[in-house]
Amino acid sequence: MNSKNINRILGAIFVITAVMAIAFISGCTEPEQEGNLTGDLTESLTEIHFGYQPSTHQIAYLTAKEKGWWDNNLAPLGIVKTTDNLFPSGAPEMTSMLAGDLDVAYVGAAPFISALSGGLDAKIVAAVQVQGSDLVVRTGVPYEKPEDLKGMKIATFPPGTIQDTLLRNWLKTNNIDPDKDATILPMTPADAVTAISAGQVDAVFLPHPSPTEIKEKGYGRTVVQSGEIMPNHACCVVVVSGNLIRNHSEVVATIVATHVDATEYNNEHPEEAAQIYAADQEMNISIVQNSINEWDGTWVADPHLIVNSTVDYANIQYELGYITKPLTEKDIFDMSFYDSLQK
Is 209 helix (H, G, I), strand (E, B) or coil? Predict the structure, then answer.
C-alpha cells in the first residue's frame, strides 16, 4: 500500500476512535451495545474470513490477495491469517455470513439487503462496481423487444440477488408478469451457461464474464445490458460485520483502504486484472479480457455513488415481498471509513 493511503488509514483510525470515545463518554451508546463492546474488546482478533464470487465484478478482492496486500496490511493490526470462501452467488454467501462464518463479503447489494432484513448485523462500507450484467438470448431464438420474452424460460441468480431483482422489476415495467408470463429459473453461473448451451433455457441474465463466454462459444447473444435496465445501478459491494465495525475499527479502515488501492490498480491495469481473474478461476484469458472490454460495468469504490440505486433495491424487494419492511440509507451503509480516507 502506498504511503498516501497508510496516512489515510491512520487518519481514519484516529477519527473513528475519537468518535467512539466521545459517544461512550457522553452515554450515547445503547446499553446492550455497551455489553457487547466490553465483551468483544477482551477477545483478540487474529483471523479475517472473506467471501467472494466467480465474477469479474469482484477482481479487486483477488488483486489484493494476489499482491499480498490483505495479509501485509492487516498483519500490523494482529491479523495473522486471512482466508477466503468462494460462493456461486450472493444468496448462499449471505447465508454463510448470517451464520457467523464471514467477516467481510464481496457480494451484490441486493442479497445483502435480503440478509439485512433477515437479521444480519453488517453494513456496506464500500462499493465494488456498477452495472456489468447482460440479458443473453439463445442462438436461434428470436428477440427484438422485451415482449418477446413472454413464454420464455430465463435462468438467473436466485431470488433476492441483483440479477433476480433487476430482471423481475424490468419485466414488470414492460408489462410482463415475471411469475405468469415467463419462467424464471434460479441457477448458478455455471449451471446457467450449461442450460443455455443445451437448449434447456431460452435466455439467461448473468454477470460477466458469463455473457462473453456464452457469446464466444456460440450459445447466444447479448440483447440488453443491465445499465439499460437501470442506469448506473449498484451491483457488488464490500460488506463488513457489525462486530468488526464496532470493535475493530482500525481493521475495517485498513480493509477499506486496501480495497480502494486494489480498485484503483485494476482500473489502471485492466489486462493484469484479467490475468489475475483468469488464473484464479482457471478460465481462458481471452474470454476474460474480452469480457472486461465488452461489459458496461465500472469498478468503483465510493459508496456514495450507489446509495440511490441500493435504496431502490430495498424498495423493489419490499414490493416483491422479499423483505418485510423498507430499509433506509442509514440501515444499509456506514460511510465513515471511506469518508475518513478522503480526509
Answer: coil
pLDDT means over runs of 10, the chain (343 residues): 44 39 35 34 82 97 98 98 95 96 97 96 98 98 97 96 94 96 96 98 97 98 97 97 98 98 98 98 97 97 97 94 94 98 87
Give residue 168's Cα distance to chain centre: 19
Identify the CA nearest to 130 among candidates 252, 9, 267: 267
In 3-state terms, the chain is what percent helix, strand and coil (to 5)?
55, 15, 30
Whether 207 and 296 have beta carbons less than 8 Å apart is answered as: no
Give the span between the Cα atoms of 319 and 288, in whole angstroms: 36
Beta strand pairing status for 298-299 and 129-130?
antiparallel
First-to-last CA distance in the chain?
17
Burial 221-236 (b: 16+ CB within 10 A, else e): ebbbbbbebbeebbbb
Say what the pTM is: 0.85
Report how far apart, in Å, the C-alpha atoms of 247 and of each of 36, 43, 44, 289 are.
Answer: 9, 10, 10, 40
Q: Cα torsion at 179, 97, 277, 257 (round to 10°)? A: 120
Measured CA to CA, the distance from residue 211 to residue 294 in angstroms comes to: 10
